[in-house]
Design a protein that fits this description.
By secondary structure, the protein is mostly helical. It is 25% helix and 0% strand.
Length: 65
């Protein structure tokens, strides 16, 4: 894993291009809310890389890393 789950969540919360992708096997909690994370963004690939090249910029700008 490139980063902690907490960092992926913080980056996604600060990303204006975040777009949730619903996996076939995803489960939501009883409230119907899902965690926003790079791991659930359609721009984040299986190699843990942002195809829009925004991850590192957001980490740097928000001092998350």
């Amino acid at each position: 894993m490139r980063a902690s789950n907490e960092t992926y969540q913080k980056v996604a919360e600060n990303c204006s291009a975040y777009e949730r992708v619903a996996a076939a096997d995803s489960v939501t909690n009883g409230c119907g809310t899902d965690t926003i994370s790079c791991l659930t963004c359609r721009h984040f690939d299986n190699d843990k890389y942002c195809r829009l090249d925004l991850y590192d910029k957001i980490v740097k700008n928000h001092e998350l890393g």
